[in-house]
Structure to design on (604 residues):
C-alpha cells in the first residue's frame, strides 16, 4: 500500500519552522504546577465522598506527567482541580504561583470525546479561544488555520465535527486547546475512545507537538503502555480514596519511537506500573466487596 | 532512529489522514479531500443528487398529494350522493361548490383583507411570543429560581383554551386588536417556552466546561454554547408555536368586529354560509401550514450542522 515515497519519520511531516515560529511564545518558565495537601470531597446522597486525599505534587514547567490509576480513583477529579472545575476542600492548587480558583485559558483542556462545539466548523472551534481572548476575527482565524495545519487538518477547516472520525476530532480538540498558547495542557483520557492504531498515531503526534511547544502536560490515562510511552513521570494513584502512591521517573530517551515499546527498559517500567496498578485494583475490588 | 520500520507501521492506520494531508501518505480513505475543490464538494454532499431525490423525496411528495386528492374525491362523492350513515354529508357543500365559492371570494377584495388582518395579528403575536418565550425559557433552563417562580404560572395557564380567555382579554386590554393579539400570543407562547427550557436543560456540560477553559465569559457561553445547543429544540417549539398561534387566532377573532379570517369563518357560521365556513377553515389550515413551513425553512440554516456531511 505504501508505494508513496514516505520518508515517514513522523517528525518530517510537521512543518518545523512554522511550529517553532508559533511556539516561540512558549516560555520555559511557564507551567509550574503545585498541588499542596489537597483533599477533594464530594457531597453525595450517601454522605461525603473523599475522591482525592492528601495529594501533593509538583510539576516542573515543560514536564510531561501521566496520572495513572484504577477507574474511579480520582484522576479526573485531581485534574479538574488543576483545571479549576472543582475546588479542593483543603490545601491548594497553584499554577505559576497563582492559586487556581476557576478555569482559564492558561490551562488548556482536552477531553475524552465529543467536546467540540458541534454547531461550529472545525475552524470556528479552533478560533474560539483566541476570539474569547479578544483578538480580532481575522487574527483568530489565522491562528486557527495555523493550528489546524499543525495537526494536519487544514483541509477540513470548514467541515462540521460530526463529519470527522474520532481521531480527527481529538486532533481538532488538541489544536483548539493549543490555540490559546496555554502553559499547561490538561488531557483527560484524550485517546481513550480511539482504536489501537489511531491511538498510537495520536500519541506520536502529541509528542511531536509537545517537543516543540514544550508546555507542561498532565495526561490522565489508565493505559500503562500509553503512560510509559509518553511521559517524563508517572504519578500512580491508589483506589478510592485517591492518594498518590508512587511517582515514577521515566528516563527513556526522546524522541520516542515505536521500537521503544519492546525495549527492556520500557518493559521494566511497564512491569513496575502493572504491579502497582494490579495491587490497587485488587484493593479497589476488595473495598467494593466490603461495601456491597 | 529506525525510520524504515516506523514508516511501515505508520502507513497502516488508514482510518486517519496523514498528519499533513499534502504529503499524501497512503490511500487513506479520509485523506482524499486534499484539494480545495474536493473539499467544497464534500461540504455539498448533504444535498441529494437529483436522481436519488426523485426516487425518495419526490415520490413521497407525490404520495402526499395523492392522499389529499383521494380525500377530495371521496368528499365530492359523499356530498353529491348524499351520504348519510351516522356521519351526514347531506348538508355539506361538495368541493365543487366550495371551489366555486372560493373563486368568487378570490375575485373580490374582502377576502384578502381578512387574510391580511389575520397575518398582521399573527405576526405581531408570534414575534412577541418568540421573544418572551425564548427569554423566559432560557432563564428557566439556567436558573432554578426562575424556573420555580415561572413554572407554576405555566402549568396553571397552559391548559386553558384560547376561547376561555376572551372575556378577560376584552376586560383587560384597551382595544379589540390588542385582545386578539394577546390571545394569539398566549397560544404561541407556551410551546416556545417549554421547548426552550427543554433544549437549554439538555446542554452538554462537557461543552460548557470546554468553553470555560477556553476563556469564555458567561455571556459568551450563552451565545456560543447554550443557545446553539438548544436550537433544535427551540426550532421545534417555534414551529409548534406557529401552529398554535393560528389555532388561537380563530378564538381571538370571534371578538373582532370586521376583519380577520377567523372572524370570516365565525361570521359565516352565524350567517349559515356553509361553503364560506369551509373556505375559512381551509384557509386557516393552509396559512398555518405555510407559516409553519416558513418558520422551519428560515430556521434551517441555524441547524445545518446537524446534517451529516458526505463522510460519516
Ligand atoms: N461530581 C461528582 N459528585 C460526586 N462524586 C463524584 C463526582 N465526580 C467524581 N466523583 C466520584 O469521585 C471518585 C473519583 O472520580 P474520578 O472521575 O476522578 O475517577 P477517575 O480516576 O477519573 O476514574 P475513570 O478512570 O473511570 O475516569 C469516583 O468515586 C466518583 O464517583
Ligand atoms: Mg476519569
Amino acid at each position: 500500500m505504501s508505494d508513496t515515497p514516505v520518508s515517514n519519520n513522523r517528525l518530517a511531516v510537521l512543518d518545523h519552522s512554522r511550529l517553532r515560529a508559533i511556539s516561540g511564545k512558549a516560555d520555559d518558565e511557564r507551567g509550574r504546577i503545585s498541588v499542596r495537601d489537597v483533599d477533594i470531597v464530594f457531597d453525595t446522597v450517601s454522605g461525603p465522598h473523599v475522591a482525592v486525599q492528601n495529594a501533593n505534587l509538583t510539576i516542573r514547567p515543560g514536564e510531561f506527567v501521566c496520572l495513572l490509576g484504577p477507574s474511579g480513583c480520582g484522576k479526573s477529579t485531581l485534574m479538574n482541580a488543576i483545571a479549576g472545575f472543582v475546588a479542593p476542600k483543603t490545601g491548594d492548587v497553584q499554577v505559576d504561583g497563582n492559586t487556581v480558583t476557576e478555569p482559564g485559558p492558561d490551562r488548556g483542556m482536552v477531553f475524552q470525546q465529543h467536546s467540540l462545539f458541534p454547531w461550529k466548523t472545525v475552524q470556528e472551534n479552533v478560533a474560539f479561544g483566541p476570539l474569547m481572548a479578544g483578538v480580532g476575527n481575522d487574527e483568530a482565524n489565522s491562528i486557527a488555520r495555523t493550528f489546524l495545519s499543525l495537526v494536519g487538518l487544514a483541509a477540513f477547516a470548514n467541515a462540521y465535527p460530526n463529519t470527522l472520525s474520532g481521531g480527527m476530532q481529538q486532533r481538532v480538540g488538541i489544536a483548539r486547546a493549543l490555540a490559546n498558547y496555554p502553559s499547561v495542557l490538561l488531557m483527560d483520557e484524550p485517546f481513550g475512545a480511539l482504536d489501537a492504531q489511531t491511538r498510537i498515531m495520536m500519541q506520536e503526534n502529541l509528542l511531536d507537538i509537545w517537543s516543540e511547544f514544550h508546555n507542561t502536560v498532565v495526561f490522565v490515562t489508565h493505559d500503562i503502555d500509553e503512560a510509559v510511552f509518553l511521559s517524563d513521570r508517572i504519578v500512580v494513584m491508589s483506589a478510592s480514596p485517591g492518594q498518590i502512591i508512587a511517582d515514577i521517573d521515566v528516563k527513556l530517551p526522546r524522541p520516542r519511537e515505536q521500537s521503544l515499546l519492546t525495549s527492556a527498559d520500557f518493559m521494566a517500567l511497564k512491569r513496575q506500573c502493572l504491579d502497582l496498578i494490579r495491587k490497587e485494583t485488587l484493593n479497589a475490588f476488595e473495598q467494593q466487596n466490603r461495601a456491597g | 532512529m529506525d525510520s524504515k520500520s516506523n514508516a511501515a507501521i505508520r502507513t497502516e492506520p488508514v482510518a486517519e489522514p496523514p498528519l499533513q494531508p499534502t504529503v499524501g501518505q497512503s490511500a487513506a480513505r479520509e485523506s482524499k479531500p486534499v484539494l480545495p475543490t474536493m473539499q467544497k464538494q464534500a461540504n455539498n454532499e448533504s444535498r441529494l443528487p437529483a436522481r436519488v431525490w426523485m426516487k425518495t423525496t419526490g415520490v413521497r411528495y407525490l404520495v402526499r398529494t395523492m392522499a389529499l386528492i383521494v380525500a377530495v374525491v371521496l368528499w365530492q362523492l359523499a356530498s353529491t350522493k348524499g351520504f348519510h350513515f351516522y356521519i351526514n354529508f347531506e348538508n355539506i357543500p361538495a368541493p365543487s361548490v366550495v371551489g366555486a365559492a372560493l373563486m368568487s371570494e378570490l375575485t373580490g377584495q374582502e377576502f384578502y383583507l381578512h387574510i391580511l388582518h389575520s397575518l398582521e395579528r399573527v405576526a405581531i403575536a408570534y414575534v412577541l411570543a418568540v421573544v418572551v418565550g425564548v427569554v423566559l425559557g432560557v432563564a428557566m433552563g439556567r436558573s432554578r429560581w426562575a424556573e420555580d417562580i415561572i413554572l407554576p404560572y405555566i402549568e396553571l395557564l397552559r391548559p386553558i383554551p384560547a376561547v376561555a380567555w376572551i372575556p378577560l382579554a376584552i376586560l383587560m386590554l384597551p382595544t379589540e386588536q390588542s385582545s386578539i393579539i394577546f390571545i394569539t400570543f398566549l397560544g404561541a407562547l407556551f410551546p416556545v417556552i417549554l421547548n426552550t427550557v427543554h433544549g437549554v436543560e439538555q446542554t452538554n456540560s462537557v461543552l460548557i466546561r470546554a468553553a470555560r477553559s477556553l476563556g469564555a465569559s458567561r455571556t459568551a457561553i450563552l451565545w456560543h454554547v447554550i443557545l446553539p445547543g438548544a436550537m433544535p429544540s427551540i426550532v421545534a417549539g417555534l414551529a409548534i408555536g406557529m401552529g398554535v398561534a393560528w389555532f388561537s387566532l380563530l378564538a381571538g377573532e370571534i371578538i373582532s368586529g370586521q376583519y380577520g379570517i377567523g372572524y370570516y369563518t365565525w361570521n359565516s357560521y352565524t350567517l349559515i354560509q356553509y361553503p364560506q365556513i369551509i373556505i375559512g377553515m381551509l384557509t386557516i389550515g393552509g396559512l398555518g401550514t405555510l407559516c409553519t413551513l416558513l418558520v422551519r425553512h428560515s430556521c434551517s440554516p441555524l441547524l445545518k450542522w446537524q446534517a451529516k456531511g458526505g463522510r460519516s
Notes: The longest helix of chain B spans residues 218-253. Confidence is low (pLDDT under 50) at residues 1-45 of chain B. The pocket of magnesium ion (ligand 2) is lined by residues A 75-76, 188 (CB under 6 Å).
